[in-house]
């Protein structure tokens, strides 16, 4: 855990998991080309980016029932909004809740249309008999 904590704050005195030539941070492009890509190809995961592991980790937390607040903390997001904007579709029940809200709004709209149809004035229909109309 100390290694991870030191890496997070950028402590260059700590041994890095993937050290650069100067025993400090490795340039992301060098990491991608020289370290990650060969690993991914050998594992049969061509086209997988190192960053995809981050999304996999977050999606596994959610699939295992962790709270959005816990996912936010693990991912280092600045706010819960970032977490929901990125991973909200993965939280259980979110689709069902949205579907129920949509269905409720459609029911409300249907009732309004039925009320308007039963009121001829709302439809702009003049139902006054011809005998009562004035020229």
Overview of this protein structure:
The protein has 135 residues and is an all-alpha fold. It folds into three domains: 48 residues, no CATH class; 43 residues; 41 residues. It has six helices and no strands. It is elongated.
Distinctive features:
57% helix; mainly alpha; 135 residues; 0% strand
Layout of SSEs?
Blueprint: H1 2-9, H2 28-42, H3 51-63, H4 68-75, H5 80-87, H6 94-118
Helix pairs in contact: 3-4, 4-5
Provide a quick synopsis of the model.
With 135 residues, the chain is mostly helical. The protein contains six helices and no strands.
The H/E string reads HHHHHH
The shape is elongated
Q: State the helix count.
A: 6
Secondary-structure class: mainly alpha
Helix content range: 55-70%
Mean pLDDT: 79
Count of distinct strands: 0
- What's the structural domain tally? 3
Instruction: Point out poorly predicted stretches.
Output: none
Distance between the first and last residues' Cα? 91 Å
Largest sheet report: none
Report the radius of gyration as a whole number of Å: 29 Å
Portion in strands: under 5%
């Amino acid at each position: 855990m100390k290694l991870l904590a030191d890496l997070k704050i950028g402590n260059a005195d700590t041994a890095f998991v993937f050290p650069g030539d100067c025993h400090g941070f490795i340039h992301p492009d060098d990491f991608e080309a020289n370290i990650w890509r060969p690993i991914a190809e050998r594992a049969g995961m061509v086209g997988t980016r190192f960053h995809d592991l981050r999304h996999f980790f977050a999606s596994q937390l959610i699939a295992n029932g962790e709270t959005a607040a816990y996912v936010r903390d693990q991912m280092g997001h600045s706010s819960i909004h970032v977490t929901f904007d990125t991973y909200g579709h993965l939280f259980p029940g979110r689709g069902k809740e949205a579907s129920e809200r949509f269905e409720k709004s459609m029911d409300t709209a249907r009732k309004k249309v039925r009320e308007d149809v039963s009121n001829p004035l709302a439809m702009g229909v003049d139902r006054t008999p011809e005998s009562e109309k004035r020229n």
